[in-house]
Amino acid sequence: MVELKVKTEMDVDRNLCNYCGACVGMCPTDAIWLDETVIKIHEEKCIECGFCIVGCPTGAITAEWFHGNL
Which Pfam family, any one, appears in the UniProt record? Predict the structure, then answer.
């Protein structure tokens, strides 16, 4: 039997995000981009590497699947 991995949503806390773009530069699949003052995430392109979460200087990005292990 094959076990399928189900993606869960990522969240960007707009109260913490300072729109510095660090997460954009960290993403190896270009799944994150800055649209004026909104961080957007293309979840189908996301490979759940966690680089954006770890690279965010304000801790604004979270995901249910990320537990601090890279």
Answer: Fer4
